[in-house]
Amino acid sequence: MTSDLTPLYRTYSLPDVEPHLQKHSVTGVVLVQAADSLAETDTLLDHARTAAIPTAVVGWLPLADPSEVAAELCRRADDEWLHGVRHMIHRDPDALWLTRVGVENSLDLIADAGLVFDAVAERADLLALLPGLARRHPQLTIVLDHLGKPPVATGEWQPWADLISEIAAEPGVVAKISGLATVSGENLGQPGWQPYVDHALAEFGPHRLMVGSDWPFTLTTADYDMVWETTADTLSDLDDTERAEICGGTAVRVYRPAGQKDPSNKEKYD
């Protein structure tokens, strides 16, 4: 993290966001890594252990090295909070990192351990890799972060829309409605977001979608309350059951913040 991202150039912890969680009746959270290091994973786990509400962690493991991943999974086998793994694939200089043999072997290991894989696929070339990845790893739950960063600022539609349809055709993939504020430009708000959320709803359905705050990164553009309220506005045409799925049910099934990591408990999303 560098000082050019002024709102982020400080240390954040759960107490900083707790007033907003209480305001919006949020009863559980998922902490997701923002740095590809084991130190980041350990820091998030430390936060989770002392959290006042049920918390799951999506950390980082060295997925390019299956032997190291196996060792880390063994070391962390009794950890109650680690429920997912992410690598910042959009920042990796290797655009085909997801197709490396070592990475693919590691994804099988984390699937066997009952962990999910968060895919921060923010470009068309990365989105295009996900259908094949899902087919090669049918036991792995893949979470598409930030709806694949749709082009809200420009109002463009393709190739994002077709790629989302292809990804949603794979039953092991769920998606997160998050990160839209930082790609909105002058289209920040419900009118700009609605077409993209509607397409995700049509393709994934409420039972394979979840909301995310993208906090604190979203502070570069909008505060927690604005993101939560705008997201809620995009879901206003749904019934209570559908909104409950997106605003909590899907995340609980996928990340199991208070549950077990037993892969035999993996929910079916098709």
UniProtKB/TrEMBL annotation:
Question: This protein's superkingdom?
Answer: Bacteria
Q: Which Pfam families match?
A: Amidohydro_2 (PF04909)
Q: Where in the numbering of this chain does the Amidohydrolase-related domain appear?
A: 16-256
Work out whether the entry's keyword set contains Hydrolase.
yes
Supply the InterPro entries for this chain. Amidohydro-rel, Metal_Hydrolase, Metallo-dep_Lactonases
Q: Which UniProt keywords apply?
A: Hydrolase
Task: Please report the name of this protein according to its UniProt entry.
Answer: Putative amidohydrolase
- Single annotated GO MF: hydrolase activity
Key word Membrane present: no
What is the species listed in this Swiss-Prot or TrEMBL entry? Gordonia rhizosphera NBRC 16068
* Family of this protein: Belongs to the metallo-dependent hydrolases superfamily.
- What SUPFAM superfamilies is this protein classified in? Metallo-dependent hydrolases
